[in-house]
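Need residues for this backbone.
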């Protein structure tokens, strides 16, 4: 089987990377929404972060960055 020309392979990989970036952004937004729900349920971002073993600033920043706009 013949390997496609490098230009075609490059174009294909660029398209895949673009799709991955879109899907990663969607996942970050869904994750932030889940974090926000968790903070609401547990009463605070601090309580959620403690429960998850994460820093409260990382949790707060994710919620703020990906649940707005």
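Answer:
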């Amino acid at each position: 089987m013949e390997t496609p020309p490098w230009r075609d392979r490059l174009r294909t990989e660029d398209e895949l990377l673009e799709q991955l970036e879109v899907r990663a952004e969607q996942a970050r937004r869904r994750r932030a929404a889940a974090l926000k729900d968790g903070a609401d349920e547990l009463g605070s971002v601090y309580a959620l972060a403690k429960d998850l073993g994460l820093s409260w600033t990382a949790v707060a920043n994710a919620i703020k960055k990906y649940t707005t706009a």
